């Protein structure tokens, strides 16, 4: 696995914490805080698109 630079954890209501990270090759990672050894990985653009959709409320049915 590449060297991942993780952001500080983001914790929502109920202490559901996750972290976002990137590697030198431009991949983006998202993981449950404390489980960074098992992240989801995709391109940076894919992660930005996911965050935009969540903010717009178009992913509420997944939650």
What's this entry about, in short?
The chain has one helix and five strands.
Layout of SSEs?
Layout: E1 5-6, E2 10-11, E3 17-22, E4 27-32, E5 40-43, H1 44-55
In words, what does this structure look like?
There is one protein chain. This protein has 63 residues and is an alpha+beta fold. The chain has one domain. It has 1 helix and 5 strands, in the order βββββα. Strands 1, 2, 3, 4 and 5 form a 5-stranded antiparallel sheet that branches. The longest helix is centred in the last third of the chain and has 12 residues, at 44-55. The relative contact order is 0.17.
Which terms would index this structure?
19% helix, 5 strands, five-stranded antiparallel β-sheet, 63 residues, DUF397 domain-containing protein, 1 helix, alpha+beta
Shape summary: globular
What is the number of helical segments per DSSP (H or I, 4+ residues)? 1
Helix/strand-derived category reads alpha+beta
User: What is the helix/strand order?
Assistant: EEEEEH
Number of strands: 5
- How many domains? The number is 1
Strand content: 25-35%
Mean of residue pLDDT values: 86
Helix content: 10-25%
Radius of gyration: 12 Å
Q: Which regions are unreliable across 5 or more consecutive residues at pLDDT < 50?
A: none
């Amino acid at each position: 696995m590449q060297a991942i630079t993780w952001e500080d954890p983001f914790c929502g209501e109920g202490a559901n914490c996750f972290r976002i990270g990137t590697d030198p090759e431009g991949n983006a990672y998202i993981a449950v805080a404390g489980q960074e050894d098992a992240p989801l990985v995709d391109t940076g653009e894919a992660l930005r698109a996911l965050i935009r959709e969540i903010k717009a409320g178009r992913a509420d049915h997944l939650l």
